[in-house]
């Protein structure tokens, strides 16, 4: 009778058949339970809706109605969602995209340097919106994440322009000055050039990583005179001291740091002879030996730009201290697990004070990763967000929700 009772209830039946299955196929049962545990973990702790911070107002309303991805869960690639693996693999996959053909404008700076503005060839009307891009630390117009984000702007009738820093992207270095986190003069020059050439076009600017820091510096300094109508900063660091500290943590961060320090040296090496007159101020042999970004900045960047020390440079470069000055709609997008910027270093209280700023923070994604889906291929989450944001800004600026910069 007792047996009949247990097998007649559903839970009794499940229990009995599971026990039977487990006893007859212990290995498969083990794999299955691991799979279920993983799935549970993935669905509860990895795939999440991004955190969104924005003060109630026009900007928030536009974002909430026209950027639906805000309310989507971000599903990082289930077999590759760690911060370093997202960063590395997304970079590799984006790198598989073919190089882009540009038309290049060379811009001379007042101090004798040269920048290159790369345009995607097009026969768009004179007043087509302009999507402006700036890459990160050692980047240029053929950098992996630039190649993957540009199609999102080009396919919606935007004229695309990418700024290459001095000495990057095949640009010659004419003077012993490269660029740093506070080189917003060069960005100012590029945007002025664009505005003169296309006075009736709106400009939506996108800065990625260090490009976003420079764009942020430009926006903070130019306030209501900024020449772009809206902006987005992707994986940009707001407190450089915090980033440098985080990158010096032992393990993969330290390893990546070493790699970046070497890459930074490689950006200087081809222009070595330009720094001859600099020799007593900065010893290039020492610069070459840098094993961290901080060492490189201490021995090279801060000296080249005349800062008293590397800490002085980092203090000047902190967006966190000036971001309240931004006057055009600006979305800051990053991942909570970005190794350059721990979640607690994000100035998430700022959107409460400045209604032009919004923060969107995904739980995973690493540094410019945001790879999604089981078989990841761009557009990734970041590219899709960019596309929706760009369209939202273009339409709301056209409709007069935000003032168009003249
Ligand atoms: C930036 O980070 C440094 C190092 O962690 C910290 O001491 C400083 O208070 C931070 N600055 C701000 C404005 O949060």
TrEMBL record:
A GO biological process held by the record: medium-chain fatty acid catabolic process
Transmembrane segments: 20-43
Serine aminopeptidase S33 domain residues: 133-341
Keywords attached to this entry: Membrane, Transmembrane, Transmembrane helix
Active site as annotated: 209, 338, 367
MF terms (GO), sorted A to Z: acetylesterase activity; monoacylglycerol lipase activity
The protein's name in its UniProt record: Phospholipase ABHD3
Lineage per the UniProt record: Eukaryota, Metazoa, Ecdysozoa, Arthropoda, Chelicerata
